Amino acid sequence: MPTITTKDGVEIFYKDWGSGQPIVFSHGWPLSSDDWDAQMMYFVTRGYRVIAHDRRGHGRSAQVADGHDMDHYADDLAALTAHLDLKKAIHVGHSTGGGEVVHYIARHGESRVAKAAILSAVPPLMVQTAANPGGLPKSVFDDFQAQLAAGRSAFYRDIAAGPFYGYNRPGVKPSEAVIQNWWRQGMMGGAKAHYDGIVAFSQTDFTEDLKKINVPVLVMHGDDDQIVPYADSAPLSAKLLKNGILKTYKGFPHGMPTTHAETINADLLAFFKE
Asked: Which GO terms describe its molecular function (predicted)?
């Protein structure tokens, strides 16, 4: 399996398919690069080189105890892009991966980056603070950690079968295959990485990162997102970006790259070609 080793000795698994302009995908918590199957298959057949890695502690990457924070996530992504010597790359991040992409570009610069897209993404800041009154109370994320520690198998099953894909909404037919695939990806990773990752995705403030970015960024979000609520995320991120484009999807859930892949893929392609 292709891997790189980071400067702090962590083995990171990645996929690298095809040729052409590179698209680099950053996945959400607590998943793996497999969550991008619908996008990678679509774009590799349309002349792009598609690359996705498993975040440290997730998927097939090393289950290390430490470094589960946005600085390390961004540095690991930078190590991968440097190892592959990517030029004019398009970065696409979903959920926590959207935060990773934003922090990577702000922290490591734009010399290798052409554009970015963040989908159902956590920036600018998820947790409620005095400066972010519309955020979710810290107790929500404390409860996530408590449930994970008490039994993550059942916890992950409940997330996938409920709010992540909007399967708890009236009239929505759950896909057992999609639920099981989410659970499978989650259980491949390390409990410690996932536990710490809850703090990373909920308490990192990306406000200053967003302001630093010059490349065009497509901000895509469903207005029925039950994981990263719409009002306190996408519109605020788009406003902070110098070159942000907001695209709102009526009724789409958090996991829209899977449930509405056809729509999302077509809109990403149009943005890449602009």
From this structure: hydrolase activity
What residues does each domain of the chain span? 3-273
Summarize pLDDT for 15-46 with one digit per residue, the tens: 999 999 999 999 999 999 999 999 999 999 99
The predicted model scores a pTM of 0.98
SS3 content of the chain, % helix, strand, coil (to 5): 45, 15, 40
Residue 32: burial class (beta carbons within 10 Å; 0-12, 13-18, 19+):
buried
Could you tell me the two tokens for 139? 């107790």
CATH code, 3-273: 3.40.50.1820
Q: Which of 34, 54, 76, 225 is catalytic?
A: 225
Instruction: Give the neighbor-by-neighbor strand order of the sheet with 217-222.
Output: 3-5, 11-17, 49-53, 22-26, 89-94, 113-119, 217-222, 244-249
Task: Identify the active-site residue in 32, 95, 120, 233.
Answer: 95
Give mean pLDDT, residues 45-56.
98
With a cut of 90, say whether residue 79 has pLDDT above it: yes
